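Bumping with the actual sequence this time:
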Amino acid sequence: MRKLMVSEQIEARGILHEATLNAMRKVERHQFVSDYWSASAYEDHPIPIGHGQTISQPYIVAYMTSQLDPQENWKVLEIGTGSGYQAAVLAEIVDQVYTVEIVQALGHSAQARLKMLGYQNILVKIGDGYYGWEEEAPFDAIIVTAASDNIPPPLIQQLKDGGKMIIPVGSPFETQHLVSVHKNEEQVLAERLLAVRFVPFTRQEAK
């Protein structure tokens, strides 16, 4: 089912980044959803994981990962751990993944799940992802898995010179776009990619 997911939903739509494809073939997506949804784990849609959150559509996970073009020696920050699936995909490629989740129950369950699955290169933090993970910065890449109405300045600051970030930008009631951010010594460049629909970025005040 994973091989079909990759060939029919991802490769067929033009994603050819080999490291991403290999990771998507390897990570057992059904381990990251409840038993109720396990039969749908490899279908082409997001799946609820509780607390108003979802595990993203496989194509979107692959698209965002491939846009970063992650390398083996990278340290990557993820904002929005959710079930831990995106972190696991990244962990199959890069050296270290740091992931932040504001919903305590999700963060703890993801941490236990990732440990059970044998991932030793993922660290989970419970906190407000808007502020990133300052003590572990800088990061080669940052991936944000919830829609924000702006690109949080702390995340830009925690990105290495030459680093990349991908983030959905827009409100829950308007069109959101995945935005690719490239940082160098002189400037920060942002480029719109494709229209998407993500759950909103949860902040500490709202919680």
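The tokens above came from a reply further down the thread. Strands lie at 47-50, 53-55, 75-79, 96-101, 122-126, 139-144, 159-169, 176-183, 188-196.
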